[in-house]
Write a structure and sequence with these properties.
The complex is a heterotrimer of chains A (98), B (489) and C (487). Chain A has 98 residues and is mainly alpha-helical. Chain A has three helices and two strands; from the N terminus they run H-H-H-E-E. Chain A has helices spanning 10-16, 23-40, 76-82; strands spanning 86-87, 90-94. Chain A starts with 9 loop residues before the first helix and ends with a strand. With 487 residues, chain C is α/β, with parallel strands linked by helices. Chain C has one domain: Amidase signature (AS) enzymes. Chain C has helices spanning 9-17, 23-41, 49-64, 107-114, 157-164, 181-187, 221-231, 249-252, 275-290, 306-321, 340-351, 354-367, 373-393, 419-424, 430-435, 464-476; strands at 44-46, 76-80, 118-123, 170-175, 190-193, 213-218, 261-265, 294-298, 399-403, 439-446, 452-459. Chain C has an eleven-stranded mixed β-sheet, sandwiched between helices. The chains are: A mainly alpha (98), B alpha+beta (489), C alpha/beta (487).
């Protein structure tokens, strides 16, 4: 586990999370998060060798939909109404440059 | 060139299911924008995915077709990245455990000429996994528009090993793969409709080296000719860099098909930190071995296997089998005609020549050729047509007209022959008098024929054919004319 | 009729059946009560009085035609603002979803509608269920009905306060790490988190998908049992929903009580626990002992690792679950965005509150390249150990008794600047979510300052009947269910 002196790179993480933070937020969050990460080091106290990771609360296998039968669709008004901006039944965003 | 190119391909193929991978909303190409959505497709708050079994079964079928091993358990991961066409800003995919592992695809390299079969080789695959297709962005001068119809369509991503060594091989691979997939009915693989998309990883190394060079990734190659051109361009570009003693930068590039150049997608390459983790909303599915085995048993014959069978069993030439076996519908049509009347060469010739000509001639301008299923054509008709020609009821010449007529009307050859009174005139006395008349009227041609110019006899046949409206049997006519000319000496 | 809003479901049913009052009158009584206390409590972020009365009229018409849909027909049920109700606002107490209306019903809401319940209002909560105090709401804090300066607990603070203050007969909350049980304890009501998978999560706006469950809050055990049996059942729209036979929890409560074996984990009574809480729970345990229950000390050795495991798994899942709130298809869109990147980051920066941002950053970090194995993967492994602790314990005992929270309700603002202290308040409840087990909180005492004390009863997977029975036995032999706050 990374040591507590390894500070969280808040700019990098905020960029990954697409979250604009003020400078004030950043310094406050960094401090708090580093405290929390120190606390997380408790996890190092236990030996997890050979232990299976648990991704689900229960092992329910084999859940699926059979038949491939088409269900109901939304009227396009639903999206037109909820979208912050739409035109020609499509959602408008600033020009995406690749 | 002192360099050798090494290419790996990643091919995305839309799996042809009626409904989307994680919800029952239907999909079809070309629908009005945002008319094929529901709460799950739009990623509305509170919605959850439920797996469409058809999608994994079809992908497993694809894997079996390509000789992959099918995973014991089908699991899902979230790939986290923000993009406006991605409704949840994560994509459900299979990072840790792909559904299909390994596999290989038989390809045919270009032959010395178009009518000569090239050598075959197996290209190794790394994996096939399933993931969700995002929506579709279109760009105006000022902004971008998003249509979510496509979002959630099952996409199979086929990843090859770096096992292709020229742009021709890459093209051969794509053609072979497309044939395999369309044969199995898993996708129509229409690149123009986005049903098949290709990314190519290209690197150069000094010939003889077994270490891979730095690769670049070419994105969004949406036609086979773009794949070829972009790889060729990239080989030249990288060779120039290496020649100058510089090193290739690992980056993603985009092919511009109008300018025939590629350019770097991001000046500052953003780190790909997708934060994969197991999706907590979808439970792992253990793949039922019995279901897999019954899928394996129901697999269609692979196109190259079919081609070999046609060559070995029916002695069909490569020029015919390469056309027939490039299209499942065509070769199935051939086989059903063959089951009615056993004359493989004649049937194959009608399909590859006459039928294909009619199919492309009768499609709308700019569209691809018609499918047989779009027409009134039936396999029995071809069988019957071959039968009436071979039994001498009509000539090959008349058969051409009958073919065209049956293609358009949907009537059987016999109906057409009867309706138009086309059966050959075998009334010998009538023909004999026509022949005598022709001989009398063409002393010059007769003389030439006698001098050994065999073709001169054609000048006599023309007027007879005209008088019988083509119904005289050409072989009978030849024999009769010869007999009469020799008799007149 | 004046106290209809404080009645239990059985007596309301009797009244409705005997035509002592109508569903409209019952609804009006709850509306009047809400109007009277809501300025002090602020349990609701939104409520449509006309719509509620309309549902009441429909219920009365059904009953008049002899087509009553059962015990819930005409009963007002308050709904946490995280559950989707068709054509109602759904904001998760966030500015991010200002103006958003759900075009569909959550499965638990569909079931309530099919049972004739009146879907009543949108209850306040910590934004996106992230918090333990209902202070993190974009629509103002909710006050604890027992002491208006105290927090009601969270994140389902509105659901607990509304039931406690008579603003709803029962309510639905959601519980990811204690978000039903802790506010139930703080507000002196019963609150239950069912076994993971028993109630469909379809239409519950996900915070941490592998931990979230919908559950009931009520003023007595039987009403929780009634509400629970109405919303359970396998749902083909939720792949984690379990296909279990339907259980009639409420009628089981009328059966004679089995004297079961109760486990008391020593780790839960050690450091950091408030003395009054400790004494009240120990007194309740002693009562069980005196009534013929076997009491056994047990150990849950990995308990102290629950908080780090929980905050790694929950924030990681949340960072991904909340990515869909991006200002594109719905949700807040920044006016200042000049390009796509800014549209994402400014919309999210403006729309989310402080605690949500903190958790998104934390969750993004623990999943990011180079840290996944050390945090997320390790936490998932320790989660297995925590579940094994419970499996081990349940070979010896039928249920486990603990305090619900180490302290009674605390003062508003007390832990605002110390997120870690706030997180540690969940220490007794989160292991239950990590193990996917059912647990409830019921009132077992009052502090000298007149604040309720909650006790947690944890059951085996699908042991809802057991823990309801254990709680019911205590409840009918004590007077806590009739305690009402003076507002």
């Amino acid at each position: 586990m990374p040591k507590s002196d390894k500070k969280i790179n808040i700019d990098y993480v905020a960029q990954l999370a697409r979250l604009e933070l003020s400078e004030e937020d950043k310094s406050k969050l960094s401090g708090q998060l580093n405290d929390i990460l120190v606390y997380f080091e408790k996890l190092n106290s236990v030996n997890v060798e050979g232990i299976e990771p648990m991704a689900h609360a229960h092992k329910v296998d084999n859940v699926w939909r059979e038949g491939d039968e088409p269900g109901a669709v939304f009227s396009k008004d639903i999206l037109n109404k909820m979208a912050p901006e739409s035109r020609e039944d499509q959602v408008v965003v600033p020009k995406v440059v690749e | 060139m002192k360099y050798e190119v090494v290419i790996g391909l990643e091919i995305h193929v839309q799996v042809k299911t009626k409904t989307k991978m994680f919800t029952a909303a239907p999909y079809r190409y070309g629908a009005d924008p945002n008319t094929l959505t529901d709460a799950v497709v739009l990623g509305l708050p509170g919605t959850l995915p439920v797996l469409n079994y058809e999608a994994i079964e079809r992908c497993a079928q694809l894997g079996l077709m390509l000789g992959c091993e099918i995973a014991e358990v089908c699991k899902w991961d979230r790939k986290n990245y923000f993009y406006p066409d991605s409704p949840k800003n994560y994509q459900l995919t299979q990072n840790e455990q792909p559904l299909c592992i390994g596999g290989s695809v038989e390809i045919e390299l270009p032959g010395a000429a178009r009518n000569i079969e090239g050598t075959h080789r197996w290209v190794q695959l790394n994996r096939i996994h399933l993931e969700e297709d995002p929506g579709k962005l279109s760009h105006t001068a000022f902004d971008s528009l998003i249509d979510f119809n496509r979002a959630g369509v099952p996409l199979a991503e086929i990843v090859t090993e770096p096992d292709l060594y020229s742009s021709e091989e890459a093209v051969a691979f794509l053609n072979a793969l497309r044939n395999l997939i369309t044969f199995a009915g898993i996708s129509d693989c229409d690149m123009e409709k986005g049903q098949m998309r290709c990314d190519a990883n290209v690197s150069l190394r000094i010939k003889g080296s077994d270490v891979l060079g730095t690769r670049t990734e070419m994105k969004n190659l949406n036609s086979i000719s773009n794949v070829r051109a972009s790889i060729e361009y990239e080989i030249k570009r990288q060779a120039k860099i290496l020649e100058a003693g510089e090193s290739v930068i690992q980056e993603t590039r985009r092919w511009d098909a109008t300018k025939n150049v590629s350019f770097s997608l991001r000046s500052k390459e953003e780190a790909h930190d997708y934060r994969y983790f197991p999706d907590p909303d979808l439970m792992p599915v253990s793949m039922d071995r019995k279901r897999i085995e019954s899928l394996r048993e129901a697999l269609p014959e692979r196109p190259f296997d079919r081609q070999r069978r046609y060559q070995e069993k029916y002695f069909l030439p490569y020029t015919i089998t390469s056309v027939l076996c490039a299209d499942r519908e065509l070769s199935d049509f051939f086989e059903s005609a063959l089951s009615v009347y056993d004359s493989p060469k004649a049937i194959a010739n009608y399909i590859v020549n006459d039928l294909l000509r009619e199919l492309s001639a009768n499609s709308e301008v700019g569209d691809s050729a018609l499918l047989i299923s779009d027409t009134k054509m039936k396999a029995e008709f071809i069988a019957e047509l071959v039968e009436v020609v071979e039994s001498g009821i009509i000539s090959k010449q008349i058969a051409k007209d009958v073919f065209s007529e049956m293609f358009h009307s949907g009537d059987s050859p016999k109906t057409i022959i009867e309706k138009k009174d086309l059966s050959q005139n075998n009334d010998d006395s009538a023909i004999e008098s026509l022949c005598l008349e022709a001989i009398a009227n063409n002393p010059k041609a007769v003389a030439q024929y006698k001098e050994g110019n065999a073709k001169a006899i054609n000048a006599l046949k023309g007027p007879i054919m005209k008088a019988t409206k083509g119904k005289a049997n050409p072989a009978t006519l030849d024999a009769l004319l010869q007999k009469l000319i020799q008799g007149s000496e | 009729m004046s106290d209809l809003f404080y009645s239990d479901i059985a007596s309301l049913n009797q009244g409705l059946e005997s035509k002592a009052f109508s569903a409209v009158e019952l609804m009006q009584s709850v509306i009047d009560r809400t109007d009277a206390v809501e300025l002090k409590i602020n349990a609701f972020v939104d409520r449509d009085v006309e719509d509620a009365l309309k549902q009441g009229r429909a219920s009365d018409e059904r009953r008049a035609r002899g087509e009553s849909l059962g015990p819930f027909d005409g009963i007002p049920v308050g709904i946490k603002d995280i559950l989707a109700v068709k054509d109602q606002s759904l904001r998760c107490a966030s500015k991010m979803l200002e103006g958003y209306h759900s075009p569909y019903d959550a499965t638990c809401i569909t079931k309530l509608k099919e049972a004739g319940a009146i879907i009543w209002g949108r209850l306040n909560m910590d934004e996106f269920a992230m918090g333990s105090s209902t202070e993190n709401s974009a629509y103002g804090f909710t006050a604890n009905p027992w002491n208006l300066d105290c927090i009601p607990g969270g994140s389902s603070g509105g659901s607990a306060a509304a039931v406690s203050a008579g603003e709803a007969i029962v309510s639905l909350g959601t519980d990811t790490g204690g978000s039903i049980r802790q506010p139930a304890a703080f507000c002196g009501v019963v609150g239950m988190k069912p076994t993971y998978g028993l109630v469909s999560r379809y239409g519950l706006v996900a915070f941490a998908s592998s931990l979230d469950q919908v559950g009931p809050l009520s003023r007595n055990v039987k009403d929780s049992a009634l509400l629970l049996e109405t919303i359970t059942g396998h749902d083909p729209l939720d792949s984690t929903s379990l296909n279990q036979p339907k259980v009639n929890y409420s009628s089981a409560l009328d059966q004679p009580t089995k004297k079961m074996t109760l486990g008391v984990p020593k780790e839960f009574f050690q450091q950091g626990i408030d003395q009054e809480v400790k004494e009240a729970v120990e007194k309740a345990i002693a009562w069980y002992g005196s009534k013929g229950y076997a009491i056994e000390e047990i150990s849950l050795p990995h308990s102290e690792l629950c908080v780090p495991v929980y905050y790694i798994i929950a924030t990681a899942e949340a960072s991904s679950n909340l990515a869909r709130f991006d200002g594109v298809r719905y949700s807040h869109r920044s006016k200042d965005a000049e390009n796509m990147l800014e549209l994402f980051s400014k919309s999210r920066g403006e729309g989310f509150g402080e605690e949500v941002k903190r958790r998104i950053i934390l969750g993004t970090y623990v999943l990011s390249s180079g840290y996944y194995d050390a945090y997320y993967l390790r936490a998932q492994k320790v989660r297995s150990l925590i579940r094994q602790d419970f499996e081990q314990a349940f070979t010896k005992v039928d249920a486990i008794i603990t305090p619900t929270s180490p302290t009674p309700a605390f003062q508003r603002g007390e832990k605002n600047n110390d997120p870690l202290a706030m997180y540690l308040n969940d220490i007794y409840t989160i292991s239950v979510n990590l193990a996917g087990l059912p647990a409830l909180s019921l009132p077992v005492g009052m502090t000298q300052n007149d604040l309720p004390i909650g006790m947690q009863v944890i059951g085996k997977a699908f042991g809802e009947s057991d823990i309801l029975s254990i709680a019911h036995d205590f409840e009918k032999n004590h007077e806590f269910k009739n305690m009402r706050p003076k507002i």
